[in-house]
Specification:
alpha/beta
């Protein structure tokens, strides 16, 4: 498949599979979900490892990131809506259950899928993003609130777009995202409406807060970089409290951009969780 539709929106999908050589069932599928301001290419160095293990991968372009799936209302970017996109992808692909991987906002989707649709989820591997309840707890018990100042700023109309156009390249470079990815993501954000669509994930937060993500009952791996500029240790360590299933926490000596900078470690974590 190369696309799927939901509620009048059309999402592009990169659908690939490899030949098994590590004993993992070939029919297993892994869905990989990118965050801000990434593109599906964020996982380009990860998926070859999964294909060598015989896995099929589906990497969709998220809502807001393509002109054919860019609704305007802030409420259209709530967690309930973005999770429903994943359900629609599974339905379109004819898949009852998959392994989910998400980074940044994609991780937020994965937590929602695992909490609300555990029957569709074989396992989850979440990169960088703590469980939403752990994140909210850390906002009042640690310095996470200071780290997340930009989330409040992004609620404003128009001004964040002006700020991001001027500072995005520098911010991504300073956060140690590889230069090739910086160039690609910034170029993508120059397309008409793309930056607003991406920022709308933040503007959907007030609606998402009302949509409680409860305990997780599917096997879970959480991978976090100890030098993450956006997501601190307090939320990372609290995440285990919200998982009522086999759980593994992997701490890497890295920053926020784990798919791009730590593809081998990310792939190994995914394969270990799938095999488990």
């Amino acid at each position: 498949m190369d696309n799927f539709e939901r509620s009048g929106l059309r999402f592009d999908v990169i659908d690939q599979a490899g030949a098994p050589d590590r004993g993992v069932p070939a029919e297993e599928t892994v869905v990989l979900l990118h965050g801000f301001p990434q593109q599906p290419s964020a996982f380009d160095a990860v998926v070859p490892h999964l294909h060598r293990a015989g896995l099929r991968t589906l990497v969709p372009s998220q809502r807001g990131y393509t002109s054919t799936a860019r609704p305007r209302a802030r409420s259209d970017y709530s967690n309930a809506e973005t999770v429903a996109d994943v359900v629609a992808l599974l339905d379109a692909a004819g898949l009852d259950k998959v392994h989910l991987v998400g980074h940044d906002w994609g991780g937020f989707q994965v937590w929602g899928m695992a909490a609300w649709h555990p029957d569709r989820v074989a396992s989850i591997t979440v990169l960088s993003t703590p469980h939403p309840a752990a994140f909210l707890e850390s906002m009042i018990t640690s310095g996470q609130g200071l780290r997340s100042w930009y989330m409040a700023f992004f609620q404003l109309p128009l001004l964040p777009e002006t700020f991001a156009r001027r500072s995005l390249e520098r911010s991504l470079t300073d956060s140690r995202l590889p230069s090739a990815s910086v160039a690609e993501y910034c170029k993508a954000m120059e397309r008409p409406g793309a930056l607003t669509g991406a920022l709308n994930w933040y503007r959907g937060m007030p609606f998402s807060i009302q949509q409680r993500v409860g305990p997780i009952t599917v096997p879970t791996t959480y991978v976090w970089g100890r030098h993450d500029f956006a997501l601190g240790r307090a939320a990372a360590e609290r995440t285990e409290r919200h998982v009522q299933a086999p759980y593994q926490f992997r701490e890497l000596n890295s920053g926020h951009w784990l798919p791009e900078t730590e593809p081998d470690a990310v792939a190994e974590a995914i394969l270990a969780r799938v095999a488990g």
